[in-house]
Amino acid sequence: MRSIVGMTWAAPGATLEATGALAVNRVLLTYRRVRQQWRYLRGYFSLDADGARVERRTDFERCRRPVLLLYGFFSTRRSFEVLERRLRRDGYAVFSVNLRGLAQAFNTKGIDDLADFVRAKVERFYGHYPEMGPLTVVGHSKGGLIGAYYVKRLGGHRRVRALITLGTPHNGTPAAYLGLPLVPLARSVWQMTPMSPFVRRLQRGKWPAHVHLTSIYSRLDRVSPFPSALLDPAGSPAVRNVEVVCSHREFLHKKRIYDVILSEIRRAEADAGPTPLTAVPDIA
After folding, report:
1. Is the Cβ–Cβ distance between 205 and 181 less than 8 Å?
2. What is the pLDDT of residue 13?
3. What pLDDT is attached to residue 14?
4. How far is residue 9 from each of residues 14, 17, 36, 239, measured CA to CA in Å?
5. Radius of gyration in angstroms for the set of CA atoms belonging to the chain, rounded to a whole number
6. What is the pLDDT of residue 46?
7. Terminal CA-CA length for the chain
8. N or C terminus: fewer CB in 10 A for the chain?
9. Which residues contact 118 (CB under 8 A, 6 or more apart)?
10. What confidence score (pLDDT) does residue 62 get?
11. CA dist., res. 173 & res. 199, Å (int)
């Protein structure tokens, strides 16, 4: 490095060396990002039923803070890998159920049918482990609709303390129109179109007042574009919308989004009172 009258410049050899080091660093950074993104996405692109096999790590005998994860359309349980690891680290007993569907792995079945499947699974868990605490449900995309139908229409309010949805099209999404050719294989595509009979049925009636419902949404979301994921909180202090900045799949792994999810879970825990054991409402 040389200097004349306060001016500096690098020798040609030094410049080439610095440029080479910078290029190597960029290649390594790109490689790490690609590897990280593939890890996040492999739950979507696993082409066999292995994506539905998740090792059970939850001790249901000591499950005071259970969290049920419900994954989205054409996804598998592995899409929650990062979120599950973080919740476990923060002391939650996390579990999921295989919603099956296409190839016995991908989430393609009707939302109401899956909600009833979840209801039966949850009741079985509480039957075997009556000491389990109140349930928190976290649903991504279509998974949030499954959770909402379970809580509101199938008596899930007796078990659930909070439902947190991530990029869930509570009002239906125009993106579902692109999937209409898949309706013979995936009835839920039609159910997620804007103001479908399913969406209208789900929106009828009041949300259970003792169950916290939070819709975490983003204006950058192209799968559930604004305002598809907005809830109407009128008349229900338990219902709220929280805006974040991320893409649809980043709900599952972005650290800042996880901080919001954790905050909402803890808010529901702090506000919790006794969960009333009321009668199961008729299925609408």
Report:
1. no
2. 57
3. 54
4. 10, 14, 38, 61
5. 22
6. 43
7. 78
8. N
9. 68, 70, 97, 99, 146, 147, 150, 156
10. 74
11. 10
**Taking a C-beta distance cutoff of 8 angstroms, is the pair 159, 121 a contact?**
no
Whole-number Å distance between alpha carbons of 21 and 146: 50
Could you give the CA distance from residue 68 to residue 118 in angstroms, rounded to a whole number?
A: 10
Please tell me the distance from the alpha carbon of residue 150 to that of residue 25, in angstroms, as a whole number: 49
Task: For residue 231, give every residue at least 6 positions away whose Cβ sits within 8 Å of its Cβ, in sequence order, or none.
Answer: 170, 213, 215, 239, 240, 241
Q: Which region holds residue 66: left if phi is over 0, alpha if psi is between -120 and 50, else beta?
A: beta
- How much is the pLDDT for 38? 43
Q: Three-state DSSP class for 154?
A: coil
Using CB atoms within 10 Å of the CB of residue 267, give its burial: 0 to 12 exposed, 13 to 18 middle, 19+ buried.
Answer: middle
**pLDDT score for 182:** 74
Q: Please, is 187 exposed, middle or buried when counting C-beta atoms within 10 Å of its C-beta (0-12, 13-18, 19+)?
A: middle
10 Å CB burial of residue 279 (0-12, 13-18, 19+) is exposed
What are the E-state strand segments in 106-233?
Answer: 135-140, 160-166, 212-218
For residue 161, give the nearest of 144, 137, 128 by alpha carbon: 137
Query: Which regions of the chain are under pLDDT 50?
Result: 1-9, 37-55, 274-284
173 near 223, Cβ under 8 Å? yes
Q: Are 167 and 216 in contact (CB under 8 A)?
A: yes
Tell me how far CA of residue 185 lies from CA of 32, 57, 143, 182, 193, in angstroms: 36, 32, 18, 5, 16
pLDDT given for residue 284 in this prediction: 39
Residue 176 in tokens? 């579902």
Span 259-278, pLDDT tens digits: 999 999 999 999 875 444 43
Are 101 and 136 a contacting pair, CB within 8 Å? no
Q: Are 77 and 147 in contact (CB under 8 A)?
A: no
